[in-house]
Amino acid sequence: MKLLLGCLLSLLLAASALRAQQDEIPVFDLDEYLLDPKMKISIGFRALAGQKASFSGAGGVTGLVQSTQAFGALDAVDVRRSYHDGYVAQNTRVDDDGNPIVDGRTNNWLFVDEKQHDADAGLVAFNAYSAAVTDNETRNLGSGNSYGAELIVARDMGKIGRRAEWTIFAGLSLNSINESTRDTLMATVTTVTDRYSLNGQTLPNVPYSAPSTSLDENGNVINTTVLLGLNPDSRTTTVTTDVPVSAYWKLKGAYLAARAGPSLTYNIRDNLRLSFSAGAALAYVGTSYTVEHSFQPETSDLITSEVVEYGEDLLTGYYVDATLEYFLAERAALYFGAFYQSNGEYDQSMSDPAATYSTRLDLSRLQGFRAGLNYRF
Q: By three-state DSSP, how is residue 16 classified?
């Protein structure tokens, strides 16, 4: 009996020990299984200054505000004569049988300024203008800040001592180009003037467009068209010097910069790091170059001539920066940095029948500020 009780007691003690062993929570050394993140992605913005632009023309360049009006020869027939201050088109009158009336006059014309009317001579003058602008100057200007965005990927390559480590990085950034300037130049204006006869008729109020009608007191339509000579009675050409012309130069576009290289990081403390980076930089530049001349003639609206050319180029250079990281969490950090980038000079030229224009964008001394968010994974 005592032997049986002893055996039972031994079995109970063994079962209790086994149960306690099964209920015990196992402990693992997690440091053996967690891996430090090796990759880092940075997304942010950057503000830069230092890009400079210049606008110039070739020696003795002549910009031409060209007359695009088709006023034809004096004896030309079946043409529409267009001027900056009106037009004279083909007659639209017909007789009772529907046949065109051919009497050397027209009911299809328009003029816009009282200065065109010579009441004493019974004539109306129409004008076409062109301006030749000589410009030998180069205009240099520096821009304000240019804002853009950046994306950078980096990989940890190993530690250097207790607090330092090095990485390799590659990144893209995009910044805008918006350079422009205005000036007033002196031009030589050529005016072609054609005079047409009113054949003794009186002109209504200016501006006037024929054919024209009005209503009498009973609401009846009355034909008030004033007929004009179909061909000019005379043509003169006048040259006027030292006429002010407004000039405008504009370079607009963007450049995409790609950079890569090594980076050295020093851990100031657990949540604060300082890094220095340097590497090669490529910049793809795309722009539109616009040159505009405009002047105000005596008897018409503002006349403007515009030339536009598109260009692109790939520039090489280098990049250095210093960046401070502040950790918000184990894997996320804010970064703030300053940088210097050099990509040389970008040149663009264009020509029209009367002139050659050129511009230069200096990207050799770019400096600025960058900030954003880092994430390690």
A: helix
The more confident residue out of 84 and 219 is 84
Residue 78 carries which DSSP code? S
182 touches 81 (CB < 8 A): no
Return the percentage of the chain with pLDDT > 70, whole number: 87
From 152, 58, 48, 59, select the one nearest 362 (Cα to Cα): 48
pTM (whole model) above 0.90: no
pLDDT over 70 at 132, yes or no: yes
**Cα 21 from chain centre:** 76
Residue type, 297: P
Residues 6+ apart with CB under 8 A from 171: 42, 150, 151, 152, 153, 258, 259, 260
Tokens of 292: 């505009």
HSE toward the beta carbon, residue 284, CA cutoff 13 A: 5
Cβ atoms of 204 and 161 within 8 Å: the answer is no
Strand 272-295 and strand 138-142: pairing?
unpaired
Neighbour count for residue 184 (Cβ, 10 Å):
10
Q: And the tokens for 317?
A: 């250079």
* Cβ contact 62:133 at 8 Å: yes
- Residue 200: left if φ>0, alpha if ψ -120 to 50, beta else—which one? left
Quickly count: other Cβ atoms within 10 Å of residue 309's Cβ.
16
